[in-house]
Amino acid sequence: MEALAAPVLTISVEITGEAGPVHHGVVVGADTVIAHEGWPGDEESEYIPVEPSTLVFELARMVHLRRGGEEQPAADRVVSTVKALDAAFAGLDTASGDAGQDRDTVHKAVTGAGTSGSRRTP
Question: Are the C-beta atoms of 28 and 10 separated by less than 8 Å?
Fold first, then answer.
């Protein structure tokens, strides 16, 4: 367990999927390697000692990297823009210093960018 007490190298991997982000990684010591794997929505990780010679394979497994083999089915493509965020920043470029007026300006800019929804007041 000297890898946790005196790490030589720490590798962190974040994977984002349908269930949310998941954090994995490895901690490499002088003679040992400890892998840690998380679960979506859970801050706890499972720590497992792994053979140092399998470090690359362990990282590949964590990110579901596979050799050739079967072709994967086509996944739906997610198309997104930052149009509303850009509009909010543009509204803040002309900030007046009055919080209420600035909030209204940003709300109008974001709504005009094609978003909808009711406005909550603090």
Answer: yes
Are both 89 and 57 inside the same structural domain? no
- Residue 122 within a domain: no
pTM of the model: 0.51
- Cα–Cα distances (Å) from 20 to 72, 75, 117, in that order, read 21, 17, 24
Q: 87: pLDDT confidence band, cut at 50, 70 and 90?
A: confident
Edge-first strand order for the sheet with 20-28 is 9-17, 20-28, 33-39, 42-50
pLDDT digits (tens, 9 = 90+) for 10-43: 999 988 878 888 899 999 998 899 999 998 888 8
**Residue 119 maps to a domain:** no
